Amino acid sequence: MPEVNLIPMIDVIMTILTFFIIMSMTLSNFQSVDIRLPGKGDGKGNSAQSNPVQPLLVGLNVQGQIVLESGIADRPQMIQKVQTYLMQNPQGVVVLNADKDVPYENVVQLLGVLRDLGGDRVSLAIQ
């Protein structure tokens, strides 16, 4: 009596089914969010973007000393320098560069002082 071998038929049916599942997934309409990404622009920009203000770098070394562009400073000198910089540069930002071996408590404390002076114009540099 002849036997019907079902394994090849199941393989063919599964292949056809897989094909139709994949095709239905690629042809279906995906819902997407309408987002307009900014282009690279024409390179002209406005004057604020074409002449960016250099950030004021405040450093904190391993010894816990505050380092400015002019050298080591104490806290009142740093506060005066930051206030002067922020008043002269409305678009300027203050960046805190702390040594990786400085205790995090000291970094947070100095960052809090800078935040009180500059609000959201203060950043912590990381690498």
UniProtKB/TrEMBL annotation:
Protein topology in the membrane: Single-pass membrane protein; Single-pass type II membrane protein
GO terms of molecular function: transmembrane transporter activity
InterPro entries documented for this protein: ExbD (IPR003400)
Segments forming a coiled coil: none
GO biological process: protein transport
Origin: domain of life: Bacteria
Transmembrane segments: 6-27
Subcellular location: Cell membrane
Keyword Aminoacyl-tRNA synthetase included in the entry's annotation: no
GO CC annotations, alphabetized: plasma membrane
Keywords: Cell membrane, Membrane, Protein transport, Transmembrane, Transmembrane helix, Transport
PANTHER family (alphabetical): BIOPOLYMER TRANSPORT PROTEIN EXBD-RELATED (PTHR30558:SF3), EXBD MEMBRANE COMPONENT OF PMF-DRIVEN MACROMOLECULE IMPORT SYSTEM (PTHR30558)
Record-stated family: Belongs to the ExbD/TolR family.
Protein name: Biopolymer transporter ExbD
